[in-house]
Specification:
The protein has six helices and no strands. The chain is an all-alpha fold and 147 residues long. Helix 3 crosses helix 4. This is DNA-binding protein.
């Protein structure tokens, strides 16, 4: 069994999902503390009071690329910031998948054909649009089962 002080019993298998959850929280906290601490820094994000995973990844990416500038006294983006952002990419991808699947369900619920959906997504065939939806819905179901 794992102890409360963070040391792991060598006879208990690791729990990667719990470790990932702790790393996601730590990643959001690190990026928010280092690059979204002031009001001016928070205005670089969509929701100035809450740093979401997609915004944390976007912020680190923009700072690295020069699309956003560091404020005076703001620390340079370092390897740990990049690792923190990379740790958030799977969560960001899952959120985007859920958003897209929801939008596809609503489009179909509003009577759009798979051909219209395919056009909107830039796909060549209605079959490709339906398969895309099925993949997204399947991944969402797998994530729900894992939780």
């Amino acid at each position: 069994m794992s102890s409360t002080d963070g040391h792991t019993d060598p006879f208990t298998p690791p729990q990667p999902e719990q470790a990932r959850a702790r790393r996601v929280y730590a990643s959001l906290f690190r990026i928010a503390e280092r690059h979204a601490a002031t009001e001016g820094q928070r205005h670089r994000q969509v929701h100035p009071s809450v740093l979401g995973p997609h915004e944390a990844v976007r912020l680190v990416s923009f700072l690295l690329s020069g699309a956003a500038q560091l404020d005076d006294g703001e620390p340079e983006v370092d390897h740990a910031d990049i690792t923190a952002a990379l740790s958030l990419v799977p969560l960001m991808r899952a959120e985007a998948d859920e958003l897209e699947a929801s939008l596809l369900r609503m489009a179909r619920g509003r009577g759009m054909t798979w051909n219209e959906v395919a056009f909107g997504l830039g796909l060549g065939t209605p079959q490709a649009a339906r398969q895309r939806y099925e993949r997204l819905a399947g991944r969402a179901a797998e994530r729900e089962d894992a939780e």
